[in-house]
Design a protein that fits this description.
Shape: globular
Helix content: 55-70%
Structural class: mainly alpha
Distance between the termini: 96 Å
Mean pLDDT: 75
Strand order of the largest sheet: 1-2
Number of strands: 4
Largest sheet: 2 strands, antiparallel
Strand content: under 5%
Number of helices: 56
Length: 1265
C-alpha cells in the first residue's frame, strides 16, 4: 500500500506541475502582441506536438562501434517508452481533471479507463485467436503481432500473451509447422536491417522475451509456467520450435552481408540464453559455428558471436569450458576494444579466468578499464573471491591510472563495494588488503579518508593501541597523521598522538622487540627448519611485520613536531644508537638518516656524527678480525709447539736442540735483515726530505725549526693512518663494507654544501670510497662505492672529473650489466649538474665529449644489454631536455632505435622512447627544429635497411609493424608546431618547421627511382604527406620560396614524376593540393613583405624630416648664442638635453667650444650619442670606424644614415663563431681527418656552454624634444 500511495502521489505531483506549466504558457500567450501571432502559433504548435509526443527528436545515442553496447541502448529505449506511457496517462488525467476538477478522481478514472481498454483489447485478440481455423488466419495474426511489437516496448507484454496463444492454437489445429515457418519468415524481415535501427531492435527484444516466456524450465513466482496443453507435449513442441529457428538462423552465419551475420548472431544469443534444453547435436553444431564467428572480420559480428558463445560456458565454476578458453584467448589478443569488452562482460568468473580479468585493468582502452571497476568487479559476491595479490594489483592499477574517470571508478568500487563487504570496518579492510605485501595500501586508506572526512574524528588511539601495534594499525596511524598534517588538523594530532619524548620511547620499544625477535630466529634456526609450527611456542613474529611497523613510525618521525627540546634530544640519541648498532636494514635506513638530518643542529654536525659511526663500525669489525687472526696464529703456534715436542720425544734432545738453534739463528737473521731495510728506507726518506729542502731554499741548509719537524711528523702520521684505513678496506669482509657504504650513500644524498667545505667528507672519499672502488672485486661493494663516488662528484667539480673517468671505465670495460647501468646513471647525473664543463678539464685524467658520445652511442645499439639500453635512453633525454646535449646525430640515433623492430624485444626501451620523444619535441620550438633538420638523414638511413626491417616485422609477428606511413606520420606529428606547449597561436603561425620537413621530403623524392621496386613502395607515403604539412603565409619567406621551387624541380623521382602521379590518384591530388597551398601562402607573404617595406620607407622619411627640423633649430640657437659661447659652454637649453652623453673618438673633446654646425669643428652639444655595451675588441673597432666616418662636419642626418647603413650590413652578415665543444655540419664536411663514431657519426655537445660573440654596440640619436 505504501508503494502504491507513493506512486499515486508522484503521478499527482507530475500532473499538477504539467497543468501549472500549461496555464502559465496560456497566460504568456494571451499577453503577447498581435505582431508576434505567427511566431506564437508556431511555438504553440511545437509545444502542443511535444506534449502529445508527436515530434521525433533525433537519436543522439546512435553509434557505430562506440563506447556503449546494444544492451545499454535497449535500456534507454525502455525508459523512453515508459516516459511516453506516463505522458499519455498524464494527458488522460488532464482531460479528466478539466471535466471534474479533482486530481485524485481524475487519476482513478484514468486508471480505470486504462484497465478497461487493456481488458477489452485482450479479449478482442483472444476472440480472434480462438476463431482461427486456417493457416492464413494464423499467419495474419502473427504478422499483426510482430507489427505491434516494433511500435513500442510497452505493447510487448500484451503481444507476448497473444503470440503464446497463437502457438497453443497452432498446436491444437496441428499447424505447428506453419507457425514455425511463419515465425522464421518474420525474423528474416529484420536480418538485413543495420545496427541501431529501433524497430528492428524492438523486434529482437520481443523475440527474446517470447523465448523466455515459453521456456518450460523457467520458473516465475515459484511456480512452473502453466500452458493449456500437457507438459510433455509442450516440451516436444518447444524443442521442435527451437530446432527450426536455430537451424534457420545458423544459415545466416555464413552470409556475405555483414548485417545478416550480425543479426543472426544477435538473435542466436537471445534465443540460446533464454532457452532450456537443446538437442545435443544441435548444441555441438551451433557451438562450432559460433567458435568460428568469433574471428569474423567485422568487430560487431564478433561481439555478438562472443555473447552467444558465452551461453555454452560452465556455470558451476569448476573447470574452464572450451567456450571459456576461446573467449579468454579473444579477450587477450583481439585488437578491437569493443570485442575485448564483450569478452570481459560475458566470460565466466573462476580461478582460471581471474588473472585475465584482472589484466584488463591495464587495457589500452579507457572504457574497458573503467568497465572493469564499474560493472565486472561489483558482480563478485565477495571481494575475497579475488586473490590477495590480484586485489592489490587492481587497487594499484586503478588508483594510479592516468585517466581520472578510471581512478574515480576504482575509488567508487573501493568505498562502496569493498567496504560494504568489509562491514564498513577499516581494520577489516586492511586485513583483507595484506598491507605488508601491498604498495598501494597507504593510497587506498588515504582515498577512504578523503571520501569520508568525518571518520578521522571517530578515531581513538589509546595507550593499549600503541602498545599492541600491528602492521595494519601502524599503517592507519601513519596515514592518519599525514592526512591531518596535510589538512592542518592540529587539534586532531594533539588528541591522537603523544609527545615527542613518548613517541621516541615507543619507537625504541618496537626496535628492541625487533632486535630480540631477530635474535630468537637466529638462535632457533635449526628448530624452525625442522618444525615450522614451533613459531607460536617460541613467540616468534614475522620479521617483515616488525620492519613494517618501524618503517611507519620512522615516516611519522620525519614530519613530527619536535618543538620540545627534551623530546628532540631523546629521539636523536635513540636514532643514533640504533644506527650505531648496525642492525637496521636498507629499506629503513634512508628514513632513519632523514630523521637524523632533521634532528641534527646543522649539516656539518650530521656529517660528523655519520662519519664517526662509519669509522666505529669499520674499527670494531677490523679489531674483531685481527683478534680472530691472532687467535688463529696462537693456535698455529701451539700446534707447531706440540709437533716440536713430539719430535723431541721421538728423536732425542740433541737433534732437537740443533733444530731449535737453527731456527733461532734463522729468525735472528730475518729480524736483522728487516731492521736493516727499515734503516735504509728511513735514511733515504731523510735524505730525500733534506735534498728537497736544499733545492727549495739554499739559505736554510743549517737551520731546521721545530715547526718543520712537527709538520713532517704529522704528515708521516697522516700517511700512516691513511694507509691503515686502506689496509682496513682490503681486509674487511664484504658485508661490513656494504653496510658502511649504504650509510655513506644515504648521508651523501642529504648533503648539499660544497665538498671542499667539509674535510670529513674529503677524508671519507680518499680513505674509504676510492679504495673500495680500486681494491675490492665484489660486485655489490664496487657498485655502492661508485654511487658514493658519483654523489661526491655532485658536490665538487674536480671530483666529478675523476668520477667521469671511473664511471666510463665501468661502462666500457665491464661484463656485468649492473656495472654498466650504474656507470651510465652516474655519468648522466654529473653532466646534468655540471654540464659539459667537466669534459673540458685540463686535468691529465679526464674524459672528452667524443668519448662520452661514443659510450652513449654504442650502449644504445647494444641489444645484449636491454637494461643498459633503457638507462642510456633515459639519460640521453634528460640531457637533451636540460640542453646539455644538442647533437643532432645522437638524437638521430634515438629515432633509429625507435623505428627499429628490434625495439619490441625491449618493452621498457620502447616505452621510454614512446614517451620521451614527443615530450622533447613539444617542450620547445628549438627541439622541433632539431628534429626537422634530421628528417632527410633519418629516412635515408632507415631506407638503407628497409629490407632488414621488413624481415624483422615478419619474423617477430609484430601487431603494429614498422611501416613507411608510420615513420612519416610520426615525424610530421613531432614537428607540428601546433603541438608545442606554452606557445601562443601567433608563434605557431610563424613557425617554419614543416617547411623544412617538406623541403627534405622533396630532396628524398629527387633521389627516388621509380623503376626501383624498393623506392616504388616508399614514395607514396611521402607524396601523401605533403598535404599534411602545417604552415601559414606568416612563415619564413625564403623557405616558402625554396619549397615552392621544389615543386617545379624536373628531377623529382628522377624525371618520372608525371608517371608516378598518373599511377596514383591520391598522390596526385595531395601533390597538386600542396602545390596550390604553397603558392597561395607565398603570394600572401610577398604582399605582406612589400607592405612592410613601404611602411619602413614612410617611417624613414618621417625620421629624416624630424632630423632636419632638429638641425635647423640647433643652427638657429647656435647663431643666436655664438658670442655667448665663444669662450666656452655655458649652461643652456641645447646643452641640458645632453648632459649625460658620451663622445665618439678623441676628436670630440669637451674642450671644443666653437659652433657645432659651422663646418670646422664639432662641439660638445652634438645630438649624437654612442652607447657601448660590449667587451669584444671588434666592437671597439666598429665604434672607431663609425667615429671616423662621421668626421667633424657631418650633420645629424648623415650620422643616422651611416648608422643605419652599418646596421643593415650587420644584419646581412652571419656570425661564424662556433660554440666551444661543438662541431657544425659545414665544418664537418670541410675538415679532413675528422673523427667518426660509426659510419656517419659525429658529436655536438654544449649548446649553451659558451655564448656566441655578438656585436652589441649601439649608437642612439637622442630626440631633441
Amino acid at each position: 500500500m505504501d508503494l502504491g500511495k507513493t506512486k499515486q502521489q508522484t503521478r499527482r505531483t507530475a500532473v499538477v506541475e504539467r497543468i501549472e506549466k500549461k496555464s502559465a504558457d496560456t497566460f504568456n500567450r494571451s499577453i503577447t502582441s498581435a505582431d508576434d501571432s505567427v511566431s506564437e502559433s508556431g511555438g504553440d504548435s511545437s509545444e502542443s506536438e511535444e506534449e502529445n509526443g508527436e515530434i521525433e527528436h533525433p537519436d543522439h545515442n546512435e553509434h557505430d562501434g562506440g563506447e556503449e553496447e546494444d544492451e545499454e541502448d535497449e535500456e534507454k529505449e525502455e525508459d523512453e517508452e515508459k516516459e511516453e506511457e506516463e505522458e499519455e496517462e498524464e494527458e488522460e488525467m488532464e482531460d479528466e481533471l478539466e471535466e471534474d476538477g479533482d486530481i485524485d478522481a481524475a487519476i482513478k478514472k484514468a486508471d480505470a479507463k486504462k484497465k478497461q481498454s487493456t481488458v477489452k483489447q485482450r479479449r478482442e485478440y483472444l476472440n480472434l485467436v480462438s476463431n482461427i481455423t486456417t493457416p492464413e488466419d494464423l499467419e495474419t495474426l502473427m504478422r499483426k503481432t510482430f507489427m505491434e511489437s516494433q511500435t513500442t516496448v510497452a505493447a510487448h507484454k500484451r503481444e507476448l500473451v497473444i503470440l503464446k496463444a497463437l502457438m497453443v492454437r497452432a498446436y491444437a489445429l496441428e499447424l505447428n509447422d506453419k507457425f514455425n515457418m511463419t515465425f522464421c519468415k518474420l525474423l528474416s524481415k529484420i536480418l538485413p536491417l543495420k545496427r541501431n535501427i529501433k524497430p528492428a531492435d524492438k523486434v529482437v527484444k520481443f523475440v527474446s522475451s517470447f523465448f523466455e516466456n515459453i521456456n518450460p524450465l523457467k520458473i516465475r513466482d515459484g511456480e512452473e509456467l502453466q500452458v493449456p496443453i500437457p507438459a510433455s507435449a509442450f516440451e516436444e513442441v518447444h524443442a521442435l520450435f527451437i530446432n527450426k529457428v536455430v537451424k534457420y538462423l545458423m544459415k545466416g552465419l555464413d552470409a556475405k552481408d555483414t548485417t545478416v551475420r550480425y543479426r543472426s548472431c544477435q538473435l542466436l544469443y537471445h534465443i540460446i540464453g533464454n532457452s532450456g534444453a537443446m538437442d545435443e547435436d544441435l548444441y555441438e553444431s551451433i557451438s562450432d559455428e559460433l567458435s568460428t564467428k568469433v574471428y569474423d572480420k567485422d568487430a560487431a559480428v564478433r561481439v555478438k558471436a562472443i555473447a552467444a558463445l558465452a551461453c555454452f560456458q560452465n556455470e558451476d565454476g569448476g573447470s574452464l569450458s572450451v567456450a571459456g578458453k576461446k573467449i579468454r584467448f579473444i579477450m587477450q589478443n583481439d585488437l578491437n576494444a569493443e570485442v575485448r569488452r564483450a569478452c570481459l562482460k560475458h566470460i565466466e568468473k573462476n580461478r582460471y579466468t581471474e588473472p585475465f580479468i584482472v589484466e584488463r585493468a591495464r587495457d589500452v582502452d579507457t572504457v574497458n578499464r573503467r568497465t572493469l571497476y564499474t560493472k565486472i568487479l561489483p558482480t563478485y559476491s565477495s571481494v575475497t573471491e579475488i586473490s590477495s595479490a590480484n586485489r592489490n594489483k587492481l587497487l594499484e592499477w586503478g588508483l594510479r591510472d592516468r585517466d581520472e574517470s578510471v581512478r574515480n571508478a576504482c575509488a567508487n568500487w573501493l568505498t562502496n563495494t569493498w567496504m560494504s563487504n568489509a562491514n564498513n570496518n577499516i581494520m577489516e579492510f586492511l586485513d583483507q588488503l595484506n598491507v605488508t605485501e601491498s604498495e598501494i595500501a597507504d593510497t587506498a586508506v588515504r582515498v577512504l579518508l578523503n571520501r569520508n572526512t568525518e571518520i578521522v574524528n571517530t578515531f581513538e588511539f589509546s595507550k593499549e593501541f600503541y602498545d599492541n601495534l600491528t602492521p595494519s594499525l601502524a599503517l592507519l596511524l601513519r596515514v592518519t597523521y599525514e592526512y591531518c598534517h596535510d589538512n592542518q588538523k592540529e587539534d586532531v594530532i594533539d588528541r591522537l598522538y603523544p609527545e615527542a619524548a613518548e613517541f621516541a620511547v615507543l619507537f625504541e620499544k618496537f626496535f628492541v622487540e625487533r632486535t630480540d625477535n631477530l635474535q630468537k630466529i637466529s638462535e632457533n634456526r635449526e628448530k624452525l627448519e625442522n618444525d615450522p609450527n614451533i613459531v607460536k611456542e617460541l613467540e616468534i613474529v614475522d620479521p617483515d611485520d616488525y620492519d613494517y611497523i618501524v618503517k611507519q613510525l620512522l615516516m611519522i618521525a620525519v614530519d613530527y613536531d619536535y618543538s620540545d627540546e627534551f623530546g628532540r634530544n631523546k629521539m636523536y640519541s635513540i636514532l643514533r644508537s640504533t644506527l650505531a648498532n648496525n642492525t637496521i636494514t636498507e629499506p629503513l635506513l634512508p628514513l632513519l638518516m632523514e630523521c637524523l638530518r632533521k634532528l641534527a643542529v646543522n649539516e656539518r654536525d650530521f656529517c660528523q656524527m655519520t662519519v664517526e659511526i662509519i669509522n666505529d663500525l669499520k674499527d670494531n669489525a677490523y679489531e674483531k678480525l685481527m683478534q680472530e687472526k691472532k687467535m688463529e696464529e696462537t693456535q698455529r703456534r701451539r700446534e707447531s709447539e706440540e709437533q716440536r715436542k713430539r719430535r723431541k720425544r721421538r728423536y732425542g734432545n740433541e737433534e732437537e736442540e740443533e733444530g731449535d738453534k737453527g731456527e733461532e739463528d734463522l729468525d735472528k737473521g730475518n729480524h736483522e735483515v728487516s731492521d736493516l731495510n727499515e734503516r735504509v728506507a728511513k735514511l733515504l726518506n731523510d735524505d730525500g726530505d733534506i735534498s728537497d729542502e736544499q733545492d727549495s731554499d739554499d739559505d736554510s741548509d743549517e737551520y731546521h725549526s721545530a715547526v718543520n719537524e712537527m709538520s713532517r711528523q704529522s704528515i708521516i702520521e697522516a700517511n700512516k693512518s691513511r694507509q691503515e684505513e686502506i689496509d682496513q678496506v682490503s681486509a674487511l669482509p664484504p658485508q661490513v663494507l656494504t653496510d658502511c657504504l649504504t650509510i655513506t650513500k644515504c648521508m651523501l644524498q642529504l648533503v648539499f654544501s660544497p665538498l671542499r667545505e667539509n674535510m670529513l667528507l674529503i677524508s671519507l672519499l680518499d680513505n674509504f670510497i676510492v679504495p673500495c672502488v680500486n681494491e675490492r672485486s665484489e660486485v655489490e661493494v664496487r657498485e655502492l662505492a661508485l654511487i658514493c663516488h658519483g654523489l661526491c662528484g655532485l658536490l665538487d667539480k674536480e671530483v666529478a672529473v675523476s668520477t667521469m673517468v671511473v664511471a666510463g671505465i665501468f661502462v666500457t670495460r665491464s661484463d656485468y650489466e649492473s656495472f654498466v647501468v650504474t656507470g651510465l646513471k652516474v655519468i648522466g647525473d654529473l653532466l646534468t649538474i655540471h654540464g659539459i664543463s667537466i669534459l673540458q678539464s685540463e686535468s691529465q685524467i679526464s674524459i672528452d665529449s667524443m668519448a662520452v658520445a661514443k659510450v652513449f652511442y654504442r650502449t644504445l645499439k647494444d641489444q645484449s644489454k636491454p637494461e643498459a639500453q633503457t638507462t642510456v635512453a633515459i639519460t640521453l633525454f634528460k640531457l637533451f631536455l636540460c640542453g646539455v646535449i644538442t647533437d643532432d646525430e645522437l638524437f638521430e640515433t634515438t629515432l633509429l632505435a625507435y623505428f627499429n623492430p628490434k625495439v619490441n624485444n625491449n618493452p621498457s626501451l620502447k616505452q621510454c622512447l614512446t614517451f620521451c620523444i614527443p615530450t622533447y619535441a613539444f617542450s620547445h620550438q628549438d627541439h622541433q627544429e632539431l628534429i626537422a633538420n634530421i628528417v632527410y638523414d633519418t629516412i635515408s638511413r632507415i631506407y638503407k635497411d628497409w629490407p632488414e626491417i621488413q624481415r624483422l616485422n615478419q619474423e617477430n609477428e609484430i601487431k603494429k609493424p614498422i611501416t613507411a606511413n608510420f615513420i612519416i606520420e610520426s615525424l610530421l606529428y613531432w614537428t607540428d608546431p601546433y603541438n608545442l606547449a606554452m606557445v601562443d597561436e601567433e608563434e605557431m603561425e610563424r613557425s617554419s618547421n614543416h617547411l623544412d620537413v617538406g623541403i627534405q621530403f622533396m630532396k628524398l623524392l629527387r633521389n627516388f627511382d621509380y623503376n626501383n621496386k624498393l623506392h616504388r613502395t616508399l614514395y607514396k607515403p611521402i607524396l601523401r604527406a605533403l598535404s599534411k604539412l602545417t604552415f601559414t603565409s606568416k612563415a619564413d619567406l625564403t623557405k616558402l620560396r625554396k619549397f615552392s621551387q621544389c615543386f617545379d624541380d624536373e628531377t623529382l623521382c628522377q624525371g618520372d614524376l608525371d608517371e608516378v602521379l598518373k599511377g596514383d590518384a591520391i598522390c596526385k591530388t595531395n601533390f597538386l593540393k600542396s602545390h596550390t597551398y604553397v603558392q597561395d601562402c607565398l603570394r600572401d607573404a610577398e604582399a605582406r613583405a612589400e607592405a612592410n617595406a613601404d611602411t619602413d620607407d614612410i617611417v624613414d622619411a618621417e625620421n629624416n624630416e624630424a632630423n632636419t627640423e632638429v638641425e635647423n633649430e640647433a643652427t638657429k640657437n647656435n647663431v643666436n648664442s655664438h658670442e655667448a659661447v665663444s669662450g666656452g659652454h655655458r649652461p643652456g637649453k641645447a646643452l641640458s638635453l645632453h648632459e649625460d652623453t658620451s663622445q665618439i673618438g678623441s676628436s670630440h673633446s669637451t674642450s671644443n667650444n666653437t659652433n657645432a654646425f659651422n663646418g670646422e669643428e664639432k662641439s660638445d652639444s652634438s645630438a649624437v650619442t654612442v652607447k657601448r655595451e660590449t667587451k669584444e675588441e671588434d666592437n671597439g673597432d666598429r665604434v672607431a670606424e663609425v667615429g671616423q666616418e662621421l668626421g667633424a662636419s657631418d650633420s645629424p642626418v648623415e650620422v643616422v644614415q651611416v648608422i643605419r647603413k652599418g646596421r643593415k650590413t650587420k644584419k646581412k652578415g652571419k656570425s661564424t663563431t662556433r660554440e666551444h665543444g661543438s662541431i657544425s655540419k659545414k665544418s664537418r664536411k670541410s675538415t679532413k681527418g675528422r673523427k667518426k663514431l660509426d659510419d656517419e657519426y659525429v658529436v655536438n655537445l654544449g649548446r649553451d656552454s659558451v655564448k656566441t660573440h655578438q656585436d652589441t654596440s649601439e649608437i642612439i640619436l637622442l630626440d631633441s624634444e
